[in-house]
């Protein structure tokens, strides 16, 4: 489950409710394309913006419509109490794995984060992926802390943010982390622009935002990397440079991917929870053109 | 309400429930001391860690036990939908004012924050304080954005983080903000170590963490500053330098103030929501000594 391509779909919603029909459509797209796993309620799935009840419902729908594809469910919350409840709900819904980011309001220290993961890992019965995303959590993992957490029961993967652009530096970075963690724990790269580099320098899995909307495009890159053709994977990535640049201009991928889903009428517009707003204006027009020209699918 | 000393008490809790009796004790302490307002469910009140139902209950208790002291209630949440509900609940509970921080998971842009405040300011009927706290929200207000928001209906105050240590720079910083906002909107300083400097350089109010536990100590400083005796206010602040240093060592004031309340048996221990843990070890012993030596009350 924690290898190859893991696709993170949007959770389409409006101010009143989750758009369940549109969510099912996204899931069926991923299942048909043959991604290796589906990451429901990741950052792209706006887990942090939903109630416990809504998250339980989304987890259930994801599992029901994923076919044979394993579903990883995001269980992050500010409070340990709430994470334990969310883990329970996700497991009852049939999640094959769980994804946990150390969300913060008060800045957390290493020991608090370790104890948080320890409490959760002791309470669950499916594999856990440690979600390292300083851009949203504002917590910076040291490799030493990753090592301590990776020894906990049920920990099976670490989702790291982007790797350095330079392949040598990227390789060194992944090797440093690999040296701290048990061999059964996989390392996954996120930050889609870094996928080709990450997969060529020791990452086992790509936790992918674009795969949630364009699974075939992401699979093409992943399969090239998995077959050892890293130059081809890099070519596929370079083709998408305009998309990576757009992510850079809009505080990350979410508002762009939401606009993409809206443009393709796969979801109603708007599909993000306020105050978040999908990309509008010139970049929206540019995105529509990119989807067509690059045949993103 | 948005002038003088505003005291922000802890919301004591454990993993099961809010400790209502202890919370009432803290409120009565503030009321007896004669603070100018009480800020319930601020960052110190762990608003971000509680459910809607718990927050409605805390707001109700705060108003019921504040005597004649006006109560400002924190209504921040990641989602505009939830903030509107929380504003409703707080007003029904009898809040005299509301406090809103632009909490974020996905990094927000200026227009999203403006529209968020616009939606809330249009839906409320009591004054609103804009809560600028980049340390927890990771959103950085420009003075220009403060100016736009300060023009919205019901906006009555801005709670800024610390001012520069240098009095000239602090004065310039407050004057720059003052020039952007209407005269009926007050400016309040937070970051307790900066209170004396802030109050001597144009801030109208001190939004204070220590006042939530040591209201008399904070009032002494505030009244000196209000009477124009800024040298004395600065002396009072310098006396507390060991406390400010301790805040610096523990990612801010919360874990220290929680330890202080635990040491004084005003709350059960632990009183913070996991994963947050109050100060332990040597600094806890040091804090107990400081409370005694400095006669903090």
Automatic annotation (TrEMBL), chains A, B:
Gene3D superfamilies the record matches: Aldolase class I (3.20.20.70)
Catalytic site: 131, 159
Keywords: Lyase
GO CC field: cytosol
EC number(s) on file: 4.3.3.7
Binding residue positions for pyruvate: 44
Classification via InterPro entries: Aldolase_TIM (IPR013785), DapA-like (IPR002220)
Family: Belongs to the DapA family.
Protein name in UniProt: Dihydrodipicolinate synthase
Taxonomic source organism: Vibrio fluvialis
